Amino acid sequence: MRVVIERLVRDGTVVASSDDSVHDLFPVAVSVDEGEALRGWVIREAATHTIEVGLGYGLSALFICEGLLANGNATVRHVAIDPYQDTRFSGCGTQFLAEAGLAEVVEHYAEESQIALPRLLSEGRSFDFGFIDGNHRFDGVFLDLVYLGRLVRPGGILFLDDYQLPAVAGAASFCVKNLDWTVEEISAGDDLHQWAVLRSSKLRDARPFDYYVDF
Known about the structure:
Layout: H1 2-11, E1 13-15, E2 22-24, H2 32-44, E3 49-53, H3 59-70, E4 77-81, H4 92-99, E5 106-109, H5 113-122, E6 127-132, H6 138-151, E7 152-160, H7 166-179, E8 182-186, E9 196-199
Parallel strand pairs: 3-4, 3-6, 4-5, 6-7
Antiparallel strand pairs: 1-2, 7-9, 8-9
Helix pairs in contact: 1-3, 2-3, 5-6, 6-7
């Protein structure tokens, strides 16, 4: 796995085995600094089940899985949701995960997150850590945060990419001001990849039906 990560970071350009198309990984893929932050939070939270919206080129999933395996649990699983994996990304994300020996660890759902996340919730799935890097419009990020806030364990971590975008920061602000989430970390400002780490509330939602705080 480490060999695959280092190769991708070093080369920056990859060839998809599905159609021989050439892809530049960056700036679409997470930076090394963000990848290391992802791995560090997965380890810190002792996560065994993680979920990600936006598989893309798979670099974030590789860092997350590296953290999962470092936690030493034989039952680790990672769920990745990306409807564009076989089109926009020519299957590169799943290709690199397979090359890293993670095909049996990762579940990929080729659906939009607003379809996949409610289904996972209805199935009673639960996760220790979530990474959001999918639809960057406010409504898309908002839905991802709200559903993942219910899928991830109470007091769990939601790691949010592209926090420099107003729509992303606005959706996060709603959760902090209305759902009693807390901000654990915000990376240094970056025009391409700034991230924020949120922790969901440990308490049961007891808000009145008309509760609202401007965000």
